[in-house]
Amino acid sequence: MSDVSRAPEKRFSNRVADYVKYRPGYPPEILDLLREKTGLNAGSVVADIGSGTGISAEFLLREGCTVHAVEPNADMRVAAESMLGGRQGFHSVAGSATATTLPDHSVDLIVAAQAFHWFAGEATRAEFDRILDPDGWVALIWNVRKVDSTPFLVAYESLLLKHATDYGQVRYELVDEKVLASFFRDGKFTSTSFPNAQQFDYEGLKGRLLSSSYAPAAGQPGHEEMIAELERIFSEHQVGSKVAIDYDTWVHWGR
């Protein structure tokens, strides 16, 4: 059994170490995009909602802006604080997409990276409207793993479909154009994508798999069978003891 029965804010508590080590970062072109399209600059105040272990917050801090990293999961929040607590402009916030605790109209940009599919739509939109400057922007970002561009990725997707029991219930693909249009103001948003990739040895690939909330963790039913299949497909597809996971990193932005 995976973590399907757990509340979204609790699902990653037993996966923080793997999440920190093995989840992908974000292409630097996204910062260029946010500068051009949303006016992001060193003076901006950004709310990073569902900020997790700080991967997206660290990325945004490179711009020199102020980042309020809002995260409901205490374990993930502590990991972010450990990594970024000394960085100028970083503020860790115990809050959620529907209750950020931030002041009214206090942020110029809201970012949700690898997180929006966990949010409650209408209540989240109301909270975003409350904290966002009237001229502010919202950017939703996902690293979307390619599923059929290489034989290895086909095999990896097959493994997930077989062993990750609620994989189909929490995928980014559930956030379609209709969902996005209903969320952004007046249904208006723009989308673009950038290539991204990770190279893994076997231990890295295992950690990447186990960082996902839908993968059975050690001690859960199906875990050993899943790991045995992972070993097999790594052995079959590795080149120089490495395999690649390729992504399209999607950015959807609007008001």
How would you describe the overall organization of this protein?
With 255 residues, the chain is α/β, with parallel strands linked by helices. The chain has a domain at 8-145 and 170-197 and 248-254: 3-Layer(aba) Sandwich (Rossmann fold), CATH 3.40.50. Helices cover 35% and strands 24% of the residues. It contains 9 helices and 7 strands; from the N terminus they run H-H-E-H-E-H-E-E-H-E-H-H-E-H-H-E. The chain has helices at 16-22, 29-38, 55-61, 74-84, 121-131, 151-163, 177-183, 202-210, 223-237; strands at 45-49, 66-71, 90-94, 107-113, 132-145, 189-200, 243-254. The chain has a 7-stranded mixed β-sheet with strand order 3-2-1-4-5-7-6. Helix 6 packs antiparallel against helix 9 (223-237). It is globular and about 55 Å long. The N and C termini lie far apart (39 Å). 38% of the residues are buried. The model is unreliable at 1-6 (pLDDT under 50).
Task: Give the structure's gist in a few sentences.
The protein is an alpha/beta fold and 255 residues long. It has helices at residues 16-22, 29-38, 55-61, 74-84, 121-131, 151-163, 177-183, 202-210, 223-237; strands at residues 45-49, 66-71, 90-94, 107-113, 132-145, 189-200, 243-254.
What layout of secondary structure does this protein have?
Blueprint: H1 16-22, H2 29-38, E1 45-49, H3 55-61, E2 66-71, H4 74-84, E3 90-94, E4 107-113, H5 121-131, E5 132-145, H6 151-163, H7 177-183, E6 189-200, H8 202-210, H9 223-237, E7 243-254
Helix pairs in contact: 1-8, 6-9
Oligomer: single chain
Strand order of the largest sheet: 3-2-1-4-5-7-6
Q: What is the H/E string? A: HHEHEHEEHEHHEHHE
CATH topology of the domain at 8-145 and 170-197 and 248-254: Rossmann fold
CATH class of the domain at 8-145 and 170-197 and 248-254: Alpha Beta
Number of helices: 9
Count of beta strands: 7
* Share in β-strands: 15-25%
Major sheet details: 7 strands, mixed
Mean pLDDT: 94
Rg is 18 Å
Q: Whole-Å distance between the termini?
A: 39 Å
CATH architecture of the domain at 8-145 and 170-197 and 248-254: 3-Layer(aba) Sandwich
